[in-house]
Structure formats: C-alpha cells, structure tokens
Design a protein that fits this description.
It is globular and about 85 Å long. By secondary structure, the protein is an alpha+beta fold. It contains 2 helices and 28 strands.
Length: 364
C-alpha cells in the first residue's frame, strides 16, 4: 500500500518542526569554549567602551569579540605577552595604553616609555597608575612618579569610600596598600587581619561599598579602608582566589559572587548587613574547563546572563540550548527530504492509476 499525500505532508511537516526546534530547545546552564579562532594562550580580558570584549594573548595578539564573533586587531606589540588591558578602553586601541611583559604601549603623551613588565593599570582622576614588579608608576606633572618601590604589585582596585575614591594595590607577599586617589603619593599599608606575607590577586566592591580581596588563603573583606580584614568563609579558605566578579543585588537582596580559582569556576550568594558581609552557603563549583589543572581562571566578565572567563582559552558559562541539538535538526531535515520525495512519488503513482483506468475504459 502506497502512502497518501496527507501522510507525506505530515512527515515533511514533522521534519520542518524538528528542523526549527533544534536550536531553540532549552538545555540549561553549561560551559562552552568561546575563544579566538586561532587559539593562543589568553592572558587578559577586558570590556571595551562599546560593550565588546578584548582579549590579549601570550604571543602578543589582540582580539575583539563583538556580536558573537572574534576579529583580530591589527596592532603590533612586538610579540610581547599582553598583561594589562584597561577596562572601559575606548574603541580605538591604537591610542589606548596597553600593558605588556615588555612595558607600556601607548603611554601618556610626553612621558618617557615604561619598559618594566606591567601587571595591571588603572585610569583615575589623578592620572594613569601602572602596577609593576617594582612598585607603581603614576603619571602626573609631566613625568612618571614612583610609589611603593621594591613592592611587587599584582592587582589594582578602585573603591568609593568615606566620600573619596581609594585605590588599592594587591601585592605578592605584602598584602594590600591603599591611597586616596587625590593623593597617590601617600600609600599606607592596609593588611591588618590578612595572613602574613599574603598574596592578593583580585578585588571586588559590594553594593554597600565594602572591599573584598581574593588572596592565596581565600577571601577577606573590610568595612572601610584601614579597618581590620575579616575572613569571608565560602569553603575556599585554602585556595588561591585569582579573579572575582560581583554582580548587582537580586530581588532577595543577595549578591551573586563569581570566583575564579585554580580548580575551576565557583558561585556563591553574599548577604550584606550593617555590620558584616557573609555567604549564604558555601561556594558551589559551577564547572571547570578541560585545562583547569594547568591554568587557573584569571579574569571573569559578565556576558549574556552568565560569565565569560579566561583559563588558557576563553570560556563562557550560561544558559544555552540543548547540547547536541543539531542531531534533532538533522533528523528533521531528513524527514523533510523524505516527505518531499514521497509526495511526488505518490502524485506520480496516482497519475499512472488515473491513466490506466482511462485506457481501460477506452478499450472497452
């Protein structure tokens, strides 16, 4: 028995539905690779002024992620590893300061070039501040002014507090130093309560203005600059906290905190009261990229209801469609083709039957 035209159309209709539904089926939160197409060890991530994402690599390449696609930026950095892309940089990277292992590219006009390895940088109202392995270099009065000589500064963080902006310097082995932005020559040790010889890799500021520091012995926070640091217990007290991203408070008043460590990406909800900052529960391991045993998570950025982070390559964690959805769409395509093939075959068979019947009547 041959299939009817209705049956062929039903098969094709089912196939079309599967073809369209494949990429639309919900799959939940998961981790995907979303790095530059030519690979390369990613050493820095930053958000540009237009909302695109900038990535620098170990071999001195610069990439931009915009509208879901990576493109290479044609800027020669002499093959030096990119170490400090400025957050909120203007779209024209040809003029923006870029920190590399060989110094600062595109430094302030009129100032001599910096040749020291740049670990971080911050644009302040008082001028550009550059962190190096031998203290800080502050652009001002037509020259570079040195602060904290002999101190290996790894990370810089800005915090509004007490009616002023503070700049904090996270160091390797000496905790934190802090200064008001209006007087970046007056740096004060700000390590009371931190473990001895602590290494500070990251900063975040809560909705209430408290500073959180990621160290080689977990998380710490303080109510205001120069106040004692207190441990923020999230279950990672023996871990290096390499990167932090604190999202705005949600309806329940909690603030989601993303934590990058050597063992993967974690997430925890923080609650903030008048007297303290606390975790609602221990941090949960969200996922770890395949290379997590080789590379820690050094940068985290918000991206499409999730986060984008670097761990050797660039990865994105968030809400995505069903994993393997393309097999469903492929099955739909095959059904569409089958239905299309069966429909003319049925039509031809019907025509042959009509012709045969007419011939029989004529012969009679």
């Amino acid at each position: 028995m041959q299939m009817s035209r209705t049956g062929a159309l039903a098969i094709a209709g089912l196939g079309l539905a599967l073809l369209i539904a494949g990429p639309l089926l919900p799959g939940g939160e998961r981790l995907i690779r979303n790095g530059p197409p030519q690979g390369g060890h990613v050493t820095d991530l930053a958000r540009a002024a237009d909302g695109s994402v900038l990535a620098g690599t170990q071999d001195g390449a610069l990439w931009r992620l915009a509208e879901g696609r990576w493109s290479r930026i044609n800027l020669d950095l002499g093959g030096q590893p990119v170490t400090a892309l400025p957050a909120g940089v203007a779209n024209d990277l040809m003029r923006a300061p870029i920190g590399t292992a060989g110094g600062l590219i595109n430094g302030p006009p009129g100032l001599p070039p910096l040749r020291d390895r740049v670990s971080d940088q911050a644009v302040t109202d008082a001028g550009l501040v550059v962190a190096t392995g031998d203290g800080l270099q502050v652009a001002g009065d037509g020259r570079w002014q040195t602060a904290l000589p002999g101190v290996q500064v790894y990370r810089l963080g800005v915090q509004p507090a007490n009616g002023s902006d503070y700049l904090h310097a996270g160091t390797i082995g000496q905790g934190v130093f802090s200064a008001r932005v209006e007087d970046l020559r007056d740096w004060i040790a700000n390590a009371d309560g931190l473990p001895a010889a602590s290494r500070v890799y990251s900063f975040a500021v809560t909705a209430g203005g408290r500073l959180i520091a990621g160290t080689d012995h977990g998380l710490y926070w303080q109510t205001a600059p120069q106040q004692p640091w207190r441990m923020l217990r999230v279950g990672l007290e023996d871990s290096r906290i390499l990167s932090l991203l604190l999202e705005p408070a949600v309806d329940a008043g909690t603030q989601p905190l993303w934590i990058g460590s050597d063992s993967g990406l974690y997430r925890v909800d923080l609650t903030e009261h008048q007297e303290r900052v606390a975790a609602a529960a221990y941090a949960v391991l969200v996922d770890a990229p395949p290379e997590h045993l080789r590379y820690g998570i050094s940068w985290i950025l918000p991206q499409d209801d999730g986060v984008l982070f670097s761990a050797g390559d660039v990865y994105q964690y968030g809400e995505f469609g069903l994993k393997g959805w393309y097999w469903i769409s492929l099955a739909g395509l095959l059904l569409v083709l089958a239905g299309g093939w069966l429909f003319p075959a049925r039509a031809a068979a019907a025509q042959d039957e009509t012709g045969s019947a007419s011939g029989s009547r004529a012969g009679a």
